[in-house]
Amino acid sequence: MTTRRLIAIAAVAAAFATLPPQDGDAATDIAVGGALGGASVVAAAHDDASGARGDNIGAPSAAGKSAKIDNRFDFEHVSCRGGENEIRVIVTGVKRNEGLIIADMYPNDQEVFLRGRGRIKKVRYAARAPETKFCVPAPGPGVFAMAVYHDRNANGNFDKTGLGLPAEPWGLSNNPRGLFGPPKIERTLFEVDAGGAALEIELN
After folding, report:
1. Regarding beta strands 131-137 and 86-92, do their DSSP bridges make them parallel or antiparallel, or are they unpaired?
2. Cis peptide before 130 (omega within 30 of 0)
3. C-beta of residue 80 within 8 angstroms of C-beta of residue 41
4. Can you give the pTM of this predicted structure?
5. Residue 35 has pLDDT above 90, yes or no
6. 75/7 Cα distance (integer angstroms)
7. pLDDT tens-digit map of 116-129
């Protein structure tokens, strides 16, 4: 690991050291990991924030819409109902058929980004290598962000090493690179319209 990369990790760890854990969830921990970087269902947990919408001012990436024309997103999964505002997700870089792929969806709000209490929805599906595919229903049209991680031991936590570094693969919508501090939500935003959206998220 290069000195520059270690400095970036240390900067993020220090920035998030003052943040209290949220709901005992791994969402805050995934923010620290930001510097580093299925056909069958075993569980599905939906945490709906009442009235939460991703309609704050922002500059979403066009990646979500452009991906709609990719035939790879024409897949079947028990979570895909074909309704309005449906987000079709492909998580790549899954190396093992074990544990869960967990996805958290957030509104366009930096204050709650990657914090458990701020998420709009959380889903969990069986991990399938090399790609895990599923759908997430958005609460309506708007601008959102998504974080995913491979919960290899299915303990519901984003595990870390003894040094406080991520011990499990993770990823963010738009796959932002060159992060040298807490990830900014602007780099992860995507737009959902009535026709939905499509995301490909690569695990680090």
Report:
1. antiparallel
2. yes
3. no
4. 0.71
5. no
6. 41
7. 889 999 999 999 99
One-letter amino acid of 177: R
At 11, list the tokens.
């900067």
Q: Where are the alpha helices (DSSP H) in 49-195?
A: 63-66
Q: What value does the mean pLDDT take over residues 134-160? A: 96
Reading the block at residue 130, the tokens are: 């090399």
Residue from 141, 44, 139, 38 nearest 90 by CA: 38
Report pLDDT for 141. 97
* Exposed / middle / buried, residue 75 (Cβ in 10 Å: 0-12, 13-18, 19+): middle
Cα-to-chain-centroid distance, residue 59: 18
Q: Tokens for 21, please give them.
A: 């854990």
Burial of 35 (0-12, 13-18, 19+ CB in 10 A): buried
pLDDT confidence bin for 62, thresholds 50/70/90: very low
* The pLDDT of residue 82 is above 80: yes
Torsion of the alpha carbons at 164, 169, 170 and 176, rounded to the nearest 10: 100
